[in-house]
Specification:
By secondary structure, the chain is α+β, with helices and mostly antiparallel strands. About 35% of the residues lie in helices and about 5% in strands. The longest helix has 30 residues. The radius of gyration is 34 Å and the shape is elongated.
Length: about 575
């Protein structure tokens, strides 16, 4: 016997049947209405699905729904990409079907979160290639211009003195075939591969560079004992944007940089005595709990009450705001539950706090000819210049003249202090060499006042390997004794050969000024004569050499040249 249905259920099923399958001779609307209803349901389903898909791609879903993501969400919200969906970088743009297939790769993360199979701190185990993510917005071919960088550092004295470092960042880029192919972004359009011995790519013992002519250059860290024959090409990583910009949206800044930034923007007043020193000190402590950290920050109020009471009672609000700012900095960079601090995730941009650029450009990655991947500061940026607010004008040096043979050695920076001599004064000011007084090119505090922890300056055995490649030191030019009236051939030409011949020679002389011959000196440049026999005061050569120039004469040399011009500029 069949199953008997209730009358009410029967009536509903009958009505539903006649609604979707109206009997013959029914009104036209009876045939149309079912399709309208189905269409509405389909539209609702599609719209709901679209909203659902958009929500699962949103920063709100990625940053707050998942309880493991608070550190990444906090840094994302203050990053340059805070208006960019997380999936733009972690999945990449593409056809819906492509994105769906990529999202299925995240099922393992969902499983790990539900069943707690993960370990803190979380580290990204994979990422999409930059060509599928970064390069969808940032066109590599457009990277071709240098840019000014201004870095503010407050000192630890009572007045929180401000020093500003200026440099020109040689971002560059492009291909040599287009007249470019230089600077930092050269790495983007020119193939560079490397092998990393650790998951975070902080140790890179081997680099392979593909040259324009089709050849390959290989560089090995001399301290790594790396065996080239053991290389599996499948383990090589091709350098792209993320090799350097790995923390572009999730940067956990260290206490020094965080406080300098807050003071520069006025969030923390630089008028508060010793605030930079005290803030960095208390932020640098490894606190066991967040409560203890917040209590320590609040204790700053007691410090100023006891040690700067006059200032405290007149500026209590400024101190309160400073303490609040320090708490905010801590909450954006330290997450004890997730075991994350500013030291957890290395930032490969730069070379001060983590190896970064020095993973390869440390001076100790050599090829089979003992030539290194160059370490010079001005390879990627101009020589940094430190300036205080008292200095009305800051001059940044952009060197583009000929280099001495010693400078062409690929490890010149590693060895330059060993071959420093008086010939350096041909091009540079050299007072207080190796110091930090900023009184000359050779006393730059941005160079000598900073510990370059990750550079290979002290690599054992490296100096012995490279010293043989340096050309002999250039002897200092001595003046020929003047007997009677000075002459060009005997007294002046040796000076020009030592100081000027590198630039002012036939064929390549700037403005056509050839100083290698007597006739060239008298002829002058395309703008006119450079010496006026008998009149050194109005001679262009004397005027130029009386102020800073690429290669300046010594006082004794200039005095002799002035005397030679005064005596009529005799040839011999």
């Amino acid at each position: 016997m069949g199953k008997k249905t209730s009358g009410k259920d029967g009536r509903h099923s009958s009505r539903l049947k006649y609604f979707f399958f109206p009997p013959p001779n029914s009104p036209r609307r009876a045939y149309i209405l079912p399709y309208v209803v189905l269409g509405i349901f389909v539209i609702i389903f599609i719209v709901a699905g679209a909203y659902g898909w958009d929500y699962t791609n949103s920063p709100t879903f990625c940053g707050t729904t998942c309880h493991t993501m608070p550190p990444q969400n906090a840094t994302y919200l203050v990053s340059p990409h805070s208006n960019v969906y997380c999936t733009e970088c972690h999945i990449g743009r593409g056809f819906l079907g492509t994105q769906l297939s990529r999202k299925t790769e995240d099922l393992y993360e969902i499983y790990s979160m539900i069943f707690h199979t993960y370990e803190y701190p979380l580290q990204a185990s994979r990422s999409r290639p930059a060509r599928e993510t970064c390069e969808k917005c940032h066109q590599p071919e457009a990277f071709s211009f240098d840019s000014l960088r201004t870095i503010s550092h407050f000192q630890d004295d009572r007045d929180n003195s401000l020093l500003t470092t200026y440099l020109i960042l040689k971002t560059g880029g492009g291909k040599k075939s287009e007249g470019l192919g230089k600077g930092i972004h050269w790495h983007v359009l020119n193939k560079v591969e490397f092998y990393s011995s650790d998951p975070l790519q902080q140790s890179i013992p081997y680099i392979r560079v593909h040259n324009d002519d089709g050849s390959v250059s290989e560089f090995i860290d001399v301290e790594s004992d790396f065996d080239v024959s053991s290389i599996d090409d499948n383990e090589l990583v091709t350098m792209d944007c993320i090799t350097c910009h790995n923390r572009v949206s999730h940067d956990f800044k260290n206490p020094r940089d965080s406080i300098d930034s807050a003071m520069e923007r006025g969030i923390i007043s630089s008028d508060i005595p010793f605030i930079r020193k005290k803030a960095v000190e208390i932020l640098s402590v490894d606190y066991p709990t967040t409560v203890e950290a917040l209590d320590a920050f609040q204790s700053l109020e007691s410090y100023y009450k006891e040690n700067a009471s006059d200032y405290y009672w007149d500026n209590k609000e400024e101190i309160t705001l400073a303490i609040s700012a320090i708490k905010d900095i801590y909450s954006q960079s330290v997450f004890l539950d997730q075991e994350v601090t500013w030291e957890t995730h290395p930032n490969n941009l730069g070379h001060m706090n983590f190896p970064g650029c020095f993973r390869c450009h440390d001076g100790k990655h050599l090829d089979n000819k003992d030539e290194a991947i160059r370490l010079e500061c001005n390879l990627c940026h101009s020589i940094p210049v430190v300036s205080s607010p008292r200095e009305f004008i800051t001059t940044i040096e952009l060197s583009h003249g000929p280099e001495p043979l010693s400078h062409l050695n690929t490890n010149w920076i590693n060895l330059h202090h060993s071959v420093f001599d008086n010939t350096c004064t041909n091009c540079h000011t050299t007072s207080d060499p190796g110091g930090v007084s900023n009184s000359s090119f050779c006393s730059n505090s941005a160079c000598h006042g900073v510990p370059y922890t990750f550079a290979g300056f002290d690599a054992p055995g490296l100096k012995e390997i490279l010293s043989a490649g340096l050309p002999p030191a250039q002897p200092l030019q001595t003046l020929v004794p003047v007997i009677g009236i000075p002459t060009f051939e005997l007294n002046i030409q040796p000076i020009f050969e030592a100081r000027c011949a590198a630039c002012h020679k036939p064929g390549t002389a700037p403005l056509g000024l050839d100083l290698s011959t007597y006739s060239g000196v008298l002829r002058g440049s395309s703008t006119g004569p450079v010496i006026i026999p008998g009149n050194p005061t109005d001679s262009t050569l004397v005027k130029i050499q009386s102020s800073p120039h690429f290669a300046n004469f010594t006082d004794e040399e200039l005095e002799l040249i002035i005397r030679w011009i005064q005596e009529g500029s005799i040839e011999k």
